[in-house]
Amino acid sequence: MSDMNYNNCECDQRDSCDCDCKCYCECERCRTLAPNRTTLKCGCPGAVTLPLATVAGTNFTVATVTVDTKGFRKPCIKFEFASNIITTAAVLSLNFQIFKQCKNQLVPIPVGPVWTFSRLVAVTESDSFTFFVCDCDICDAECCTYSVVATVAGVATVGVTSVNNATLSAIVVDNATGC
After folding, report:
1. Buried b or exposed e, range 83-116, using 16+ CB within 10 angstroms
2. 3 state SS of 175
3. pLDDT tens digits, residue range 25-58?
4. What is the reported pTM?
């Protein structure tokens, strides 16, 4: 397998694109790319405190990261979210979901499933809350901002809740197998 070439077209012209964002370059010059290329991108830690009696449906952005896939062909991104949720005599249910907004998009679109954190009894406690999601539905050379949004579910919150050290990181992998 050492003689296998992974290639990427050098030209910026693409003759045809289909609806699934698969573009085919019609140039003849190709450059060799290293196989299994990866990039790690980490967002800055964030925090948010939910006030007493926060009503259901209220949204909070708890973490973001911007990812540029320029230079990748058929990129796939694994997102990892980690946080520490501290409740003080709180009862609540929070839904977490990743959203992406790329250039020329007016509205962010959801990526992956909804993840739920629930505290059913009014206690003072601290829990780590983590999940990961993959996004392989992205164009080559696309720059997107990904955000983790927490939404209060069910009824209004009781007590005080803080989402601390919320971090979103991305591992971008090149899935190209040839020119």
Report:
1. bebbbeebbbbbbbbbbbbbeeeeebeebeeebe
2. coil
3. 444 444 555 666 889 999 999 999 998 888 999 9
4. 0.77
